[in-house]
Design a protein that fits this description.
Blueprint lengths: L9 E5 L8 E7 L4 E5 L10 E4 L3 E7 L14 H19 L1 H18 L1
Antiparallel strand pairs: 1-2, 1-5, 2-3, 3-4
Length: 115
């Protein structure tokens, strides 16, 4: 089942533009082509990024983007940031990308030492 990139709370990765590779959460769907994205860091809830759905890769991950935050008050940027980081870390470990990235870094360091 392919993840739908047009539902609030869906975690996506930008595939085009200067923000390529950046992880976001969809906060709102404008129409079938456009969504509003936040990451809690450069794109905050007060000023989300407008992006076309075709420039996003949807992941099978969801986070909370409305309602109450961890502090019991309204959801804020730190809640988004923490949730995205937790989902990203868990996803990279689950898929094995985190381990491969560490191994490549170690191999590069060993190669420099051996020369």
């Amino acid at each position: 089942m392919k993840a739908k990139p047009t539902e609030p709370g869906r975690v996506v990765i930008s595939t085009q533009g200067h923000d390529e590779g950046r992880w976001y959460a969809i906060v709102s769907v404008l129409d079938e082509r456009m969504v509003l994205l936040v990451d809690g860091d450069t794109r905050k809830l007060a000023k989300p990024k407008k992006k076309q759905v075709k420039h996003l890769h949807a992941l099978p991950l969801m986070i909370q983007v409305e309602g109450k935050g961890a502090s019991g008050g309204p959801l804020d940027d730190s809640d988004i940031r923490k949730a995205l980081k937790a989902q990203k870390d868990a996803y990279l470990i689950q898929t094995g990308y985190a381990q491969n990235a560490h191994t490549e870094h170690v191999k590069e360091a060993d190669a420099l030492v051996q020369e």
